[in-house]
Write a structure and sequence with these properties.
The chain is of the alpha/beta class. The chain is built from 18 helices and 34 strands. The strands form seven sheets. The protein has an eight-stranded parallel barrel, surrounded by five helices. The structure holds acetamide (ACM) and zinc ion.
């Protein structure tokens, strides 16, 4: 009975060991491919390996990249050796219409990358580069390099995967942009969007209008110094060609009709007032825009676009279109005459006239326009692509009109946002397809872009803003959302920090300065609070008696135990000084702590606080809705059902809501609280009306308290009626309103 024959025993142990080995034999691929099978064994890449690439250009690129990453020394001479060879080949039998689809197999003797198209081969090569161990990349010692055996099939979820670099507010050199082209290629982006013109600088040479670069590229800083820079057409071509050889399309953005002070400083005759103007050194939105009443403005822009189209071979020209104040147009006799002559209703329609007229011009040259979502105002031009930045609404509206869109909502994709409001985790949660979009409209979502606006960022600070969050967006745009898993992604990110260092990327933080997690031990009746820091150099000082921590307060070095109601105040210090980063946590041992909470509508990921248990975690939010404790619900009512696990005597139920109308956060009109023993039949409903005026600029919170006399129940339902839309008196009238709640206290 207990005897096991030797061969079977051996076989079993072999299988188990091999499984473990295969698991260890992996690489941290970002973005994660569609399908990966890790196998046992390694391919030993060395100078003796034959490299067999049919396309000359890809051959040169491949070996120079492998040499650079490994320190090996491949030459262009091909040495056939079917026992030790890398084969990169077009295989039209693979078929498929997706040009980026590729297969990558690594066995102990042969590595093969195959695709029907060169584009797919190129993407597959990037996956191969990521199979090279980080230790080798960092040291570049070049003896033999172990490549883990695997079988990968891959293609992208979205065909538009971009990075928008603002080189106007702060200039980036041509060399720097080319380095970023390589970085983008490595993470499988395929679009580089260059924001080339704005109020603070004109950055592209236009031969017909030399003052655009002579005058428009320079601004006088407040200290009197001159700041500037621009790309000659020769340099632009160099960037475009470099990107093209890496299967990246460069999309130029030439802003109109707003964000054009630098252009007006050079040629003030294109404005409503005639100027004069200066290239501004301030950030913001400015009233002086191109005059829509003068035909000469359109001829000027068409001549510029002629040169731009000559340079940029792609199908799309981005014409901005965002943030256009209408003040000048309202007071300009030419603009008013245009409105009349064209039968337009108002200045919004004049904006649409402007965009349509330019779009028609570009269409006549075989190009299509992209514009920020304001181009929806007054109707879309035929073929226009909407880049949805204010949220996802622009993409949804575009899809309804059967127009394509690029999804770049600022809350998730503006990597200029600081890490406190957009951390790695939130970036990763972004989904370019809006929930609820009908299936036949999904095809209009081309993909998305990360944006780096550079008001606050100099060239040498770009890495720290983009990384590591750009890794999250690489996966958001490439990886099928079914395969996304933050914890698993995060473990890969941890492993690629060495890769980033190896190529000189000075990455920044992945999470906010201070994060916390807390767990409650019901048996011991105590909370354990765990604090993590966004920056290694920070030292945390904390107190639990309500006093403000200073540099003499306790230093955090292990989870803090909370055994009675208290206020835990946490402050981050660096080099003995308070950094300004702090959080306050108010602990309350009420009856619903550790209960089960079911939400009818999901909270918005931007304000998810600590996730599903936030509202019954025993920790209260401060009056700062950004503090990571408030949970936000966008444009929907709130309904939560608490299951206490068993019947408990209930005297009070107190959900707390926040009001901050300047941030579109409103108190619920009313809250209904009811109780149940079986989770089906609810009774004892109490309705608490809001008694605080809606039009209230103060930040405050309100407890919607229901009191009970001697009532025991297991289930508690809290229903809060949202006002859903910002009211008529509010600047954002008609936009969705927020409902913010933290903690449903049960006594
Ligand atoms: C934008 O952020 N104004 C496109
Ligand atoms: Zn005008």
């Amino acid at each position: 009975m207990r005897k096991i024959s030797l061969p079977l025993f051996f076989l079993l142990s072999f299988i188990i060991v091999s499984d473990v080995k295969a698991k260890e034999n992996t690489a941290p691929l970002i973005p994660f491919p569609e399908k990966v099978e890790w196998l046992e064994g390694k391919f030993l890449l060395s100078n003796e390996t034959g490299i067999n690439v049919k396309s000359n250009e890809l051959y040169r690129y491949f070996i120079s990249k492998v040499n650079e990453l490994t320190g090996l020394n491949f030459t262009l001479k091909y040495k056939p050796d079917l026992n030790n060879e890398v084969i990169i080949k077009i295989d039209s039998s693979l078929g498929g219409s997706n040009k980026e689809f590729y297969l990558l197999t690594v066995s102990e003797h042969i590595i093969e990358i195959a695709s029907s198209f060169e584009e797919g081969l190129f993407r597959g090569m990037q996956t191969f580069f990521q199979l090279i161990p980080a230790s080798v990349k960092t040291v570049k010692n070049g003896s033999t390099v172990d490549i883990p055996c695997c079988k990968i099939t891959d293609k992208p979820a979205f065909k538009w995967r971009g990075l928008n670099l603002d080189c106007t507010r702060h200039f980036m050199t041509k060399e720097f942009i080319k380095q970023y082209v390589d970085i983008l290629a490595y993470y499988k982006f395929n679009i580089l969007h260059l924001h080339l013109t704005d109020d603070q600088g004109w950055r592209i040479e236009i031969k017909k209008y030399p003052k655009l670069s002579q005058v428009g590229s320079l601004r006088k800083e407040t200290d009197g110094s001159l700041y500037g820079g621009y790309y000659t057409q020769y340099e632009i071509k160099e960037i475009i060609d470099y990107a093209k050889s890496r299967f990246i399309t460069v999309v130029p953005e030439i802003e109109m009709p707003g964000h054009c002070l630098a252009s007006l400083a050079a040629y003030p005759e294109n404005s409503c007032t005639g100027g004069p103007f200066e290239v501004t050194n301030k950030w913001g939105v400015f009233n002086d825009v191109y005059c829509a009443g003068r035909d000469s403005t359109f001829y000027f822009l068409e001549n510029i676009l002629d040169e731009v189209m000559e340079l940029f071979p792609g199908k799309y020209i981005h014409i901005g279109g965002d943030e256009v104040p209408k003040d000048r147009w309202k007071a300009c006799p030419r603009c008013l005459a245009r409105i009349k002559a064209e039968g337009l209703k108002n200045e919004e329609e004049l904006q649409s006239y402007f965009v349509k007229r330019i779009s028609e011009y570009l269409n006549s040259k075989g190009k299509d326009v992209i514009g920020w979502d304001e181009i929806l105002q007054g109707g879309l031009a035929p073929g226009a692509v909407v880049e949805s930045w204010q949220g996802m609404q622009g993409a949804i509206e575009a899809a309804k009109l059967k127009h394509y869109s690029i999804c770049s909502p600022f809350a998730y994709t503006y990597l200029s946002n600081d890490i406190e409001s957009l951390d790695l985790h939130l970036t990763y949660l972004y989904e370019p397809v809006p929930p609820g979009l009908p299936a036949d409209e999904k095809k209009y979502i081309l993909g998305g872009e990360a944006s780096l606006w550079t008001e606050e960022t100099l060239q040498n600070e770009v890495d720290g803003k983009l990384f590591p969050r750009l890794l999250a967006l690489s996966e958001v745009f490439w990886t099928n959302s079914k395969n996304k898993d933050y914890e698993e992604f995060h473990s890969r990110v941890r492993k690629v920090y060495n890769d980033l260092t190896a190529v000189g990327i000075q990455y920044g933080q992945e999470s906010k300065a201070i994060s916390f997690s807390s767990s409650y031990n019901a048996l011991r009746k105590e909370f354990m609070v765990n604090i993590t820091l966004g920056q290694e150099e920070f030292i945390i000082h904390y107190t639990i008696n309500g006093s403000e921590p200073d540099s003499t307060s306790a230093i955090y070095n292990a989870p803090v135990k909370i055994i009675k109601p208290s206020e835990l105040k946490i402050s981050a210090y660096m080099n003995g000084h308070f950094t300004g980063k702090k959080i306050d946590l108010l602990f309350d041992f009420h009856k619903a702590v550790n209960a089960k909470l079911t939400l009818t509508e999901r909270y918005d990921d931007q304000y998810r606080a600590c996730g599903d248990e936030t509202l019954i975690d025993g920790i209260r939010g401060s009056n700062d809705f950004h503090d990571g404790l408030w949970q936000g619900f966008y444009g929907v009512d709130f309904e939560g059902i608490i299951d206490l696990g068993k019947e408990k005597n209930i005297s009070e139920v107190i959900p707390r809501f926040l009001s901050d109308s300047n941030s579109w956060i409103f108190l619920p009109a009313s809250v209904e609280i009811s109780l149940s023993d079986d989770g089906k039949n609810y009774s004892d409903a109490k309705v608490i009306e809001n008694d605080i005026p809606e039009k209230n600029p103060e930040i405050l919170f309100k407890d919607y308290k229901a009191s009970y006399d001697n009532r025991s129940a297991r289930y508690i339902k809290v229903f809060a009626k949202s006002i859903k839309q910002c009211p008529a008196w509010h600047p954002a009238v008609g936009e969705k309103a927020w409902l913010f709640i933290d903690e449903i206290e049960v006594n």
